[in-house]
Amino acid sequence: MRRWLLLLPILLIPHLLPAQAITISGFVRDSLSGENLSGAVVQIGNSTRQTNGYGFFSLRVAKSTASRTLSTHFLGYQTHHQRLAPAKDTTLTIWLTVQAKQLEAVTVQSDLLQRDVAPGTYRLPLTLLRQAPALLGEADLLKFVQTLPGVQGGTEGTAGMYVRGGSPDQNLILLDGMPVYNASHLFGFFSVFNPEAIATADFYKGAIPARYSGRLSSVLDLSMKEGNRQKTHGRFALSPVAGNLLLEGPLVKNKLSYMISGRRTWLDAFTNLLSLINNRNRLGYHFDDINAKINAELSPKRHLYVSWYRSKDRFLNVFTDSRYKSVYGYDWANSTLSARYTQLFSEKLFGRFQLGLVKYHYALNTRSETAEGTIHFDTRSAIRDVLLKTDFDLSAASSVQLQFGTQLSLRRFTPEIRTAQGNVPVDESAAPAQPAYSHEASAYVDATLTFAEHMSANVGLVQSVNLVPDRTYANLQPRLSIQYGLSDHLSLKAAYNTQVQYLHLLTNSSLGLPTDLWVPTNAAILPQTSQQVSLGIYQGNRKGFSGSVEGYYKWLDNVLEYKTGSNLFLTRASEWTDRVLVGAGRSYGLETYLKKTTGAWTGWVSYTLSWHQRLFAGLNGGQWFPYTYDRRHVVSAVVTKTTRPNQQLTANFQFNTGATATLPTSRVSLPQPDAGISPIYQGSFQQYFSQIDVLNNRNNFRLPAYHRLDLSYRFDKVKKRGTRSWILACYNVYNRNNPFIVYLQDGQLKQFSLFTILPSATYSYAF
Questions:
Q1: Signal peptide span per the entry (predicted)?
Q2: I need a labelling partner for 428 at 20 to 30 A (CA). Which of 253, 261, 505, 621 fits?
Q3: Closest Cα partner for 585 from 551, 560, 610, 619?
Q4: Is this structure's pTM higher than 0.90?
Q5: pLDDT tens digits, residue range 685-725?
Q6: So what's the pLDDT on residue 49?
């Protein structure tokens, strides 16, 4: 690792030598709303920069280059050209205007970014997300990510992500810089993110920048809208599942703006109606989420942002008859609160400081009432995370862009607490456990180097430290990616990444249930680690088409799995280290991606060929076995046809090789230990013998292939006071019975399918 410490200054020194240069910096903003535009491309001569999450850019250029035209491109906006002839460092504000035709912006932006974007990096098109077909008409950000190569979902309809052989806990999901620990509503069928409140969504799975750490497989970085600084706008939408409302506007024009968005399901209205029909069984469920943000301009160079988010689910099932009553309730919730301060210290240096609080909890409550008495069990688990972040962008030279910063995370885990009341004796061993603490600190530096017009590299380094009782872990994590332009449109990219994760998720099922238990590393369980290499060839925008072919190999260490026969439900946190095995994983594959961005037909097609495996000394005879979501072939296609300027037809097709499962290969009969067998047969066979399933290998069975076609048709109409939109959609058009659960019954393999063909209609109005 010391060689990595020496590598950075060696690479930087030639680029930091004094030169006759000036700095051109500034902000790129929407001319109508005043919001900062993240990801805009700013170019002067051969120098190109992308604006950061706050719309800021900084270009260090030679004085001879400065007397040229500065061009700014952003998808969906008119290209902005400005002639410059500055004699000294200059700060600008660039205002972009929305345009109807997006051909030029798409083509230019794709070409310019082709040399700069690292492998495995995507900016998600949220406009397409809002018109794509979705389960019951509810647009879902996480399912949209699942259409990208190398990403797959879990079981039918669920919102979990499995990225390049990783598990759901290995994905870092950030909302305005704050981590979200449970990203699912309705037991995993919908994500907790309201697409109407999201401004940008960036996804990384290959060359992950050094500013992100703490997870092994991927990063999904979401930013909420800042709020229109010019006029008040709003939008409401109604789907069969939920309704949502968004409002944004200025509190003080051009100085102080707000955004607030709320969403709530009305499934409980239907379940309450069913309860009136069947008074023996009362079923209730609802979810809601709220996003809010304040954006204050303290001065042209200083801004303050305050963000708040909360999501909550509640499930209740009550069954009653003449002799028995049972009550079964779940509730789980996420919340984040953060304040961010940004300042432009100079034309070269931009800084941001963030303080935040994250909370997550779930509670399971059951009560059984009989004539003999009452049994009451209560289980709870919670996480509290206090975070402090500092990040800086420095334009050190015309060919060097630096990012560096620190992060401190103070986590408290309140483990599962089991209590028993009524006439059931309380098990003293199940007394509430003490909270567990895990504190993590990290510092990073990331350097983007341009060696020549067609070659650049990104060199990063993260130093992290994790403090847990009786143990301190310290890890150095190098990152390296290289991009080489073979031609104006074709480039070769390679990357090497190391990641360390100081958290584990003990998963009870594949459904994303809130009873999955987050636990920290401790003196006995080491942090998870990964190393990944990737190599790909990328085709820039050529006649409206772009694409890539990328191969990768990833190693995982210190991953966890429950021991065979462990009690997977209501496992106390103080016991979890005795119930798990520590092992390794490996994943490798080839990903292809083809995208069309112009014309009446647009969209993308991806194909992934991959192998995902696990190794545990106490499982499968100590041999490698397929991971649960080892799917050899995964195909995704999202295609949109613009039939008229205000009407689009979108199709979404998914094909996956079936997931793996562990099923018995045979069944044997063994004598009951206390059956008292005598030479004379005196009773039934079952009285003396028990049937035992024989499990040969782990994940020895592959489920049938999963495939599905969804369609949607969107048509907009401009009204006097706004725009009305209808989306008519059909989920699972040809009514494929995909397996949700597979089981053995009477020696025959049976499957349960959850979703058949589901039509839906969604209405929205923007004003």
A1: none
A2: 505
A3: 560
A4: no
A5: 455 556 666 667 888 888 889 999 999 999 899 888 889 99
A6: 84
> pLDDT value at position 18?
45
* Domains of the chain as residue ranges with CATH: 22-113 (2.60.40.1120), 121-662 (2.40.170.20), 663-696 (no CATH)
Q: How many residues does the chain have?
A: 767
* Distant-in-sequence, close-in-space partners of 392: CB < 8 Å, separation ≥ 6: 349, 350, 351, 352, 402, 403, 404, 405
Helix H or strand E encompassing 126:
helix 126-131
Supply 102's token pair. 């997006």
CB 400 within 8 A of CB 449: yes
CA distance 218 to 172: 6
- Cβ-count burial of 499 within 10 angstroms (0-12 exposed, 13-18 middle, 19+ buried)? buried
* Ramachandran area for residue 315 (φ above 0: left; ψ -120 to 50: alpha; else beta): beta
At 674, list the tokens.
Answer: 């206390």
Q: How confident is the model at residue 681 (pLDDT cuts 50, 70, 90)?
A: very low
pLDDT in tens, 161-186: 899 999 989 999 999 999 999 888 87
The pLDDT tens digits of the residues spanning 359-413 come to 999 888 888 877 777 777 777 889 999 999 999 999 888 788 899 999 999 999 9
User: Rounded CA gap, 574 and 64, in Å?
Assistant: 67
Count the neighbouring beta carbons within 10 Å of the beta carbon of residue 735. Answer: 11
Cα dihedral 121, 123, 129, 134, rounded to 10, equals 20
- Chain Cα centroid distance, residue 292: 20
Mean pLDDT of 253-257: 93
Q: Which SS3 state, helix, strand or coil, does residue 472 take?
A: strand
Burial of 109 (0-12, 13-18, 19+ CB in 10 A): buried
46 burial class (0-12, 13-18, 19+ CB within 10 angstroms)?
A: exposed
Q: Which two tokens stand for residue 42?
A: 């700013």
Element (H, E) at 628: none
Six token digits for residue 171: 């994905």
Closest by CA to 658, choosing from 734, 592, 738, 729, is: 738
d(CA 12, CA 459): 10
Alpha-carbon distance of 395 to 144, in angstroms, equals: 34
Among the residue ranges 306-320, 384-398, 739-753, the one predicted with the least confidence is 739-753
Average pLDDT on 400-429 reads: 75
Residue with tokens 């969107």: 714
Contact 343, 302 (CB under 8 A): yes
For 184-214, b/e burial (b = at least 16 CB within 10 A) is bbbbbbbbbbbbbbbbbbbbbbbbbbbbbbb
Residues 6+ apart with CB under 8 A from 655: 633, 634, 635, 636, 705, 706, 707
Beta bridge partners of 671: 689
Return the amino acid letter for 420: A
- Model confidence at 70, pLDDT cuts 50, 70, 90, reads confident
